[in-house]
Please model this.
Amino acid sequence: MELAKAACVGVATVRRLEAAHGEVRGSADTVWKVQKALEHAGVQFITADESAGPGVRLKHAAKRTKRIC
Model:
């Protein structure tokens, strides 16, 4: 519920994205909103390179999410 609120998307949308296996499906705008909300909360998205695949990590102690839209 917090992520949905922070990203200005519906709770059902977040649940659908979380339940997806493999490639994330959804509008680019929705995925972008969710990614920006997570980044604002301290999540860093890591791109794949020749030694490892993509991933995520916390940049710093997680902040409480707030609306960024």
